[in-house]
Every structure is written in structure tokens, then in C-alpha cells.
Amino acid sequence: MAKYSLRLDEICNYLYSGNEETLNNANFNNEWGGGFNTELPNPFINETDVDTIIASVREKIFDFTYPLPNNSSDKKVELETKIIKHYYMHEIGFETYGRFKLALNERMNLIMPYFNELYKSVELQGDDPLSNTDIVEMKNTKTDSSSSVNSTNEGNSTSNRVFQDTPTSELGNTDYATNITDEKNTSSNNSNSTGTGNENEDMIRTIKGLSGYSKQDMIQRYRENIINVDEAIINELYDLFMLIY
Description:
Layout: H1 8-16, H2 20-24, H3 50-61, H4 73-86, H5 97-126, E1 133-163, E2 169-170, E3 176-177, E4 179-209, H6 215-236
Antiparallel strand pairs: 1-4, 2-3
């Protein structure tokens, strides 16, 4: 394969070897025969695995700030590692490492506000990835009542009491009695009662769970959403590298 510029793996190895000054040297391209000398050996460090190299140089390549959800340091490490590993064997699309770094800085700050909103959407789903139904029903019942009772009771009674020792007093029926007592009673009773009342009843019913999908389906959809956002960010950096192979 023809060589037109530095590959990202070469940049990583120069940084890993402590040759950062060589990378940043303005005359560095001249050391490569005008920048495109294919005869020079690849400075790849065979005895060191790729993951170790990337972990060591990641902060040197991404030594600039750009927005991330909640300024998550874990997400920053994960995303930057994926970017470097994806383009590890790609040649940068710029004459110098410095210009590549400037373009990478500008692109990450340009695209990340949009992709951060996508991350937030995935995180909302991630609160409970095995649930796609969350319904809250609220019901309020109010009852007012009043009552009024009026009652009136009236009564009359008449009674005679007759005591007889020896016939001295004449009764109307020509009988005689010792003592005669006439009694007459009249009674009246009025009562009123009034009552009011009210009753409030609140009911809340929550329906939450999984509907229409199996747990396996929901887990797969959640994982795909996370992967798709990371992949979309990586694809946005595609034109920062050589498009000719």
C-alpha cells in the first residue's frame, strides 16, 4: 500500500516512546523524504500490545476539552479509546500531526453537543431497560352530604282516681266514693336536627413493566442504542483521515 502520511498507529508509538518532540517538529515531514517516504521502517512497537499503547497515549492525543454528558470521565475514556482503535491503521488526512490535532479538537467540539442529547435519551431508557410501560392513574372522589330532621310529638291524657271508704260522694253513675280525683295531662315535644358531611378519596394506580417485548428484546435494543451513538461519533471523524487506500 502506498504511503502518503503518518498512520495513527505510528503517531501513537512515537508518543508512547517519548518522541513527542519529533512529532511536533516542523521539519518532521522532511525526515520522511518530503513526508511520503515509503522506505522508512514502521516504528510499531511489536512487544507492546495495542491496548497498552492506546491507554498510555490517549490523553496526549485528546489533550483538549469538549462537552460530554455530566462531564463523565468514564465515558470520555471509553469513547476516545474506541476512536483511536477504530482509526489505528488509518493515515491522518493532514500534512502534520499538529494540524490533525487542531481539526480533531474542532470537530469534537462541533458534534458533541448534538450527540450528548442522544446519550441522554439512551440514559433515560437505561433507568429501567426492561420496562417500556409507565402509566400513573390518579382518581379523586369527593362526596358532600347534608340532612335535616324535624319532629313534633303532642299528647293529651285524662284519668280519674276514685277512692271509696264509705259512700259519701256521689258519682255521676249514682255510685258513691270517699274521694274523687280528676287528672288531665297535655304534652308537646318539638325536635330539630341538622347535619352536613363531606368525604374525599384519592386513589393512585401505577402500571409499570414490560409490554409487547421480551426481556431479551429490550436488552438487545438498549445495547444497540448505546453502540449506535458511539459508532455515529466515530463516523463523523472519517474525513479527518486519508480516504484513499
